[in-house]
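This section describes the prediction task in plain terms. A model, or a person checking by hand, is given the sequence of a single protein chain and must write out its three-dimensional structure as a string of tokens. No templates, partner chains or ligands are provided. The sample shown here is typical of the held-out split.
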Amino acid sequence: MTEQEIVGVGPAFARYLGGYRDVFRQDRTAAHFDTCCRGLLSDLPRKSIEPIALASGTTVRTLQLFVTTSAWSFDAARIRLHRFVADTLADLPADPVGTVGVIDETSSRKWGITPQASSGSTWGAWARSRTGS
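The expected answer:
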């Protein structure tokens, strides 16, 4: 991507996140959602609440409370996301290969030291890759 394209991503991402504003009961809750999403897409080596909060200037406890106690409509957010993906795929030009979507939540290493500290399948896959088993 060019520098101009990278700069252009910020406003586009803000518009995208704005489409989810009404699934939250409070504006400040929606702002914490924005903070978490930006943190997950950042170059932070760890994508957990504490580093995201610290990098964004938000208190850690505030972001922890957002994740654990905020009231929002999961169903409305999921439906909106599914509609966004369907609309985006429908707008892609036809090609001989077709369109394949892959959601890979295992792309980031989990930092727990036991299977119980993180997703067992992710941890197991990472551990096997390190030990050759």
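For orientation: Residues 50 and 60 are 5 Å apart (CA to CA).
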